Amino acid sequence: MANIDMKAMFSLTYGMYIVSTEYNGKLNGQVANTCMQITSEPLCVAVCINKANLTTELVSSRGAFSVSIMEREVPMTFIGQFGFKSGRDIDKFAGVKYRMSEGGTPLIEDWCAAAFDAKVVRTVEMPSHILFVGEVRESVFFREAPLLTYSDYHTIKKGKSPKTAPTFGFNTLK
Fold first, then answer.
1. Model pTM?
2. At a CB cut-off of 8 Å and minimum separation 6, what does 70 contact?
3. Dihedrals phi, psi of 122, to nearest 5 degrees
4. Where are the strands (E) in the chain, listed by range?
């Protein structure tokens, strides 16, 4: 990585999301900053999550995921519940307001401005992560609110990236 300037990579803009799913009665979700719309007909999005995470295992098994878009005012304790704890150890949805989509994935209402459900139509394996491409089946807009960007997470909230995040290397820039 001799020719990689992490400041250049940190200049990419990202939002902050919770990617979730349900499989065999188990709800799980995780914070992610990699989500994008890739087509409009059909409406498809892509998310990228670490292979070691329980959410990845459950999305792979279910074949569907939801994305909830976090508001800027979300407290760090809420981010921490989904971002720095494992669903293997805790119930990440305990005390969280959500509704189930028609496709059976959780759409988080707490601290999220909108959410959508998608059926996985393609996966791309990377060395440490899996890119899931999903066709959107349902979306809901909860409220107008400023959205949390990845830059805000680091500069305003002083957040760090966990080791399994694709942006873990950005922690060295602080």
1. 0.88
2. 15, 16, 17, 18, 79, 111, 112, 113, 147, 148
3. -165, 150
4. 17-23, 26-32, 35-40, 43-50, 64-70, 98-100, 106-108, 112-125, 129-141
Structural domain includes residue 130: yes
* Of residues 171, 12, 156, the one with CA closest to residue 72: 156
Indicate the SS3 state at residue 154: helix
pLDDT tens, 98-157? Answer: 999 999 999 999 999 999 999 999 999 999 999 999 999 999 999 999 999 988 887 887
Question: What CATH number did the domain enclosing 43 receive?
Answer: 2.30.110.10
Tokens 């949390």 appear where?
148
68 with 81: CB under 8 angstroms?
no
Q: Are 119 and 133 in contact (CB under 8 A)?
A: no
Find tokens 């189930």 and name the residue: 100
C-alpha angle 55/149/84, rounded to 5°?
35
Give the total number of structural domains in the chain.
1
**C-alpha 44 chain-centroid distance:** 15
